[in-house]
Amino acid sequence: MTSPPSVTTLLQAWCAGDERALDELTPLVYDELRRIAARHLQSERSGHTLQATALVNEAFMRLSEAELDLQNRAHFLSVAARTMRRILADYGRARRSQKRGGGLSPVTLQEDFVADGGATDIVDIDDALCRLERVDARRCDVLVLHYFGGMTFEETSEALGISTATVDRDLRFAKAWLANELKDI
Fold first, then answer.
1. Which terminus of the chain has fewer Cβ atoms in its 10 Å neighbourhood, N or C?
2. Integer Cα distance of 7 and 12 in angstroms
3. Is the pLDDT of residue 183 over 80?
4. pLDDT in tens, 53-81
């Protein structure tokens, strides 16, 4: 009896255009993607209309439409975490434009890297992360993967091909940088 294909094998087949590989891959990664989605949504305003399942489905749809070269499970999860962050930021921007800037509900991050510990809008966080990405893309990736993707230092290290000590240093820098960027918001 042969063993089932690995997540890496299925990802590579999916990226090569094998739609059946996606059908086999989905149950293997779906719970982890829901965990990442739930983590993202924890910091959203109460009563948010986008649910974890919808966020995962939207991320899967965007990922399936993109031409990707996914190397392994960690790389896939990092791309999925970034995609979910973009979906929420797009959702926040659309909501902000509908409200014409008024009546925004704050987003409170669960982690303590916001300078005043107060609430910050997801769009402001995304804008700050985009600025950090222009300054130092790797440090931005470390922050996104660890906090928004829920990855451990080891998983982040594997996804980015850097040591766990570098993850720790980059994360401390990125947290301080982000806190400084958000302090006047």
1. N
2. 9
3. yes
4. 888 888 888 888 888 888 888 888 888 88
